[in-house]
Amino acid sequence: MVLKWLCMLEWARDDVSNVAGELALLSGLVMWATTYPGIRRKMFELFFYTHHLYILFMVFFIFHVGISFACLMLPGFYLFLVDRFLRFLQSRQRVRLVSARILPCDTVELNFSKNPRLSYNPMSILYINVPRISGLQWHPFTITSNSNLEPEKLSVVVKSDGSWTRKLHQMLSSPSSIDRLEVSVEGPYGPASTHFTRHDQLVMISGGSGITPFISIIRELIFASNTSQYKTPEVILVCAFKNSSELAMLDLLLPISGSPSDISKLQLKIEAFVTREKGPATDNSTAPRAIWFNPHATDAPVSAILGPKSWLWLGAIISSSFIIFLIIIGLITGYYIYPIDQNTEGGFPLALRSFLNMLVICICIAMTASAAVLWNKKQNARDDKQIQNVEGSTPAGSPQSWLYKADRELESVPHQSLFQAVNVHYGERPDLKKILFECKGSSVGVLASGPKMMRHEIANICSSGLADNLHFESISFTW
């Protein structure tokens, strides 16, 4: 019995290490235990932080099996290290937050300065970190802006629906508003292509804040309808809200600098349903307002970490770092490891061999990735000089006057084309079956974003076989 315990605690010099395997197993079990839906959804921070144990898991796993056997998973592990280091480099840069649009439904639109060379597709997401709230928490949000319609601006919508988002909303909506907010980002990340334009008719059904991915789609279609790139489909937006204050989310369909001509060429029909109120609210004292932030010399526009030709740079980083790794590890093996293997009883320690390989891999990736990022950072700096910084778009005067002028600007922007497309229904829920079966296009794309039950109901309608022209796609951001 004692011998068995001693074997479990053995760290062999030139053989499999039992202790390393046990530590790797323990790390894996802790990560696995926190993946249960009850823990993952109710205690997401616990789930998120414990999954950083993947570092210990990988290190001790390689110590346990040796570097030769670990090479079976080297391609995936190598690509992960490259991606993780690039994300780390991007997250170190503070980005320029230009303004925020505060809606009465506890929702905030954040508007960032963007490098014109950065392009992304609708329904992309951006990870955001606000050190003033938490230096460790990163939260993904749907990008609502369009890189073609707004080449120098990137926007995300944040709904107050958790401790982190509530703190952000309170910070921005408080009477003593701040003049600058430090923000870091990772991304954007999103779909590789936009397939919704292949349909003759597009029906987008949302519940609550599920409307946010559709904002970017509508802005993309607004741009396409004005540039005549391709024939845009007829769009029907069906959105359900609990209270009439949430109707302010429809203001986000147009950029803060939008004009009525932007949407006039798009065939858009909006059916908005307010389920918990029988009529329009009489209190309009909480109108949307905007606040502007002071620029800071260290802040930079949101840009692609590897520039517009990111795939070429990524290929160069992977290939060059791996070649350098093979050269360095070959030299170390020939002039350091091999002589010890030949002249020492028991040979070179297996754990030390694994450690040297991991160390050289990390150094090679860090060297090549840092060089590529620095090169693109210089290119981005040249572009940034040509961008009109916040000074050009920020109203002159005191911060209080900025609030006043921004409010006046929002009120003075004509939304006649948008308002004419909106039909508001109070005290009722949308009849989804009726709405979908009345669509007579030969190809009708049906996008659903919102509560799980709503998405399942729409999926059942589209798959019932009663209509052959419905093509369903669910958009879910649930973990």
UniProtKB/TrEMBL annotation:
Matching InterPro entries: FAD-bd_8, FAD-bd_FR_type, Fe3_Rdtase_TM_dom, Fe_red_NAD-bd_6, FNR_nucleotide-bd, RBOH/FRE, Riboflavin_synthase-like_b-brl
Class of the enzyme per the UniProt entry, highest EC level: oxidoreductase
Domain FAD-binding FR-type span(s) in chain numbering: 90-195
Reaction it catalyzes: 2 a Fe(II)-siderophore + NAD(+) + H(+) = 2 a Fe(III)-siderophore + NADH
GO biological process, one term: monoatomic ion transport
UniProt-listed Pfam families: FAD_binding_8, Ferric_reduct, NAD_binding_6
A Gene Ontology term for the protein's cellular component: plasma membrane
Any one GO molecular function term: metal ion binding
Keyword set, alphabetical order: Electron transport, Ion transport, Iron, Membrane, Metal-binding, Oxidoreductase, Transmembrane, Transmembrane helix, Transport
UniProt EC number: 1.16.1.7
SUPFAM superfamilies: Ferredoxin reductase-like, C-terminal NADP-linked domain (SSF52343), Riboflavin synthase domain-like (SSF63380)
Ranges annotated as spanning the membrane: 20-39, 51-82, 311-338, 350-375
Membrane topology qualifier: Multi-pass membrane protein
Subcellular location(s) of the protein: Membrane
Cofactor needs: FAD
Main location: membrane
Family listed: Belongs to the ferric reductase (FRE) family.
Protein name, UniProt field: ferric-chelate reductase (NADH)
Organism this protein belongs to: Salix udensis
